[in-house]
């Protein structure tokens, strides 16, 4: 969003990205995240658990918790899949959509050096987006298709995919 405004409307950037607008965007995103997480927690809390209550995961995700239940958990699995797809594909779709608009705007710039400068600004962000989304999506797809049988490998892939990109942020930028 920031790059979209900075590249497409550079002269109006400070009037579009006001503190109030940023606060509303942040509040909206946090509200969405809370709503996405609260329903799986409520539904998992209502399940009867008869065997082990030890969650086999480094972070207490929805899937490892509801799998411990002793009844049919197909609704929880579908809810978890929908939540994951929303949380992953929603922002990724928005990022791709904004970059399509940016690319169209940049191709209209007459100077090749200005085009390169604009693409270079976006390239670092796109690199981080790929570094984050590709391993996470791969891990979730392989996990949902049950192609990763070793749970430790699955946990390692997820842990690396959510820790490496933030660590690379200062280096890449």
Automatic annotation (TrEMBL):
It is a multi-pass membrane protein. It is found in: Membrane. The chain crosses the membrane at residues 22-45, 85-106, 118-141, 153-172. Keywords: Membrane, Receptor, Transducer, Transmembrane, Transmembrane helix. GO terms for molecular function: odorant binding; olfactory receptor activity. Its main location: membrane. GO terms for cellular component: membrane. Pfam families: 7tm_4 (PF13853). InterPro entries: GPCR1_Superfamily_Member, GPCR_Rhodpsn_7TM, Olfact_rcpt. It comes from the Eukaryota. One of its GO terms (biological process) is G protein-coupled receptor signaling pathway. Residues 1-173 form the G-protein coupled receptors family 1 profile domain. PANTHER family: G_PROTEIN_RECEP_F1_2 DOMAIN-CONTAINING PROTEIN, ODORANT RECEPTOR-RELATED. This is Olfactory receptor. The lineage of its organism: Eukaryota, Metazoa, Chordata, Craniata, Vertebrata. The gene is OFRE.
């Amino acid at each position: 969003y920031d790059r979209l405004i900075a590249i497409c409307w550079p002269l109006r950037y400070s009037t579009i990205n006001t503190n109030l607008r940023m606060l509303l965007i942040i509040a909206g995103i946090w509200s969405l995240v809370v709503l996405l997480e609260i329903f799986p927690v409520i539904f998992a809390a209502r399940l009867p658990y008869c065997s082990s209550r030890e969650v086999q995961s480094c972070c207490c995700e929805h899937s490892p918790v509801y799998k411990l239940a002793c009844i049919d958990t197909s609704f929880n699995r579908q809810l978890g899949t929908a939540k994951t797809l929303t949380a992953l594909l929603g922002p990724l779709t928005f990022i791709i959509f904004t970059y399509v608009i940016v690319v169209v705007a940049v191709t209209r710039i007459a100077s090749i050096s200005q085009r390169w400068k604009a693409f270079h600004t976006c390239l670092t962000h796109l690199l981080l987006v790929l570094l984050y989304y590709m391993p996470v999506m791969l891990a979730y797809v392989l996990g949902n298709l049950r192609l990763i049988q070793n749970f430790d490998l699955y946990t390692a892939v997820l842990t690396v995919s959510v820790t490496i990109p933030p660590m690379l942020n200062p280096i890449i930028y």
